Amino acid sequence: MKLYLDYKTTRRFAILLKYIPDTVKEISASVAFTQDDTLMKLCDKKKIHLDWWGLFNADISSKIEIVKEAIKSPYIKFYPFAELFHSKLIWFHGYGVYIGSHNLTQNAMYHNVETGVFIPENELTEEHKTEIEQYFSFLSDNSIPATIEDAELMEKYIQETKIENERRKNRQGNGGYGK
């Protein structure tokens, strides 16, 4: 087991993502916030199958541009969760599992104080592997992969939500009376 205690210039999580071995052909990622496309680009470039579960709501917890690009890839499936999703677990099948506080954001990878552990595959017991498989089975059973049409509808929803929020602010700024 390796500790990933990232602070100042120690950025082990970013290095983990950058140097995924070529032997990894499948990744299951359960990460709430995605504002950085490093993992998605890497999977697309190396032709790694990625099942990615992420929080997706009007607060743009998973950036729509990244979601749309990921959906276009033949190697990536995005499974959105609308609420109650705060996970940070990435299973690099055949290599190991990361569990920690990192989201897939620039801040998490390069600026924040973050913590986690990486457990190499050979250190995972059969019980651990079964629990991880059950966890991802639960996610799979409770979600469906998004399509490009879904992403376009999500983008429209985000825009409409922004417009409605702006109208609400304007009404409140006018003493509750809008135009």
What would you say about this model in short?
The protein is of the alpha/beta class and 179 residues long.
Fold blueprint:
Blueprint: E1 2-6, H1 12-18, E2 26-31, H2 38-46, E3 49-55, H3 64-72, E4 76-81, E5 88-92, E6 96-100, H4 106-110, E7 114-120, H5 126-141, H6 148-173
Structural notes for this entry:
With 179 residues, the chain is of the alpha/beta class. The protein contains six helices and seven strands. It has helices at 12-18, 38-46, 64-72, 106-110, 126-141, 148-173; strands spanning 2-6, 26-31, 49-55, 76-81, 88-92, 96-100, 114-120. Strands 1-7-6-5-2-3-4 form a seven-stranded mixed beta sheet. Helix 3 (64-72) packs antiparallel against helix 6. The chain is globular. 28% of the residues are buried.
Descriptive terms for the model:
40% helix; seven-stranded mixed β-sheet; 7 strands; 179 residues; alpha/beta; globular
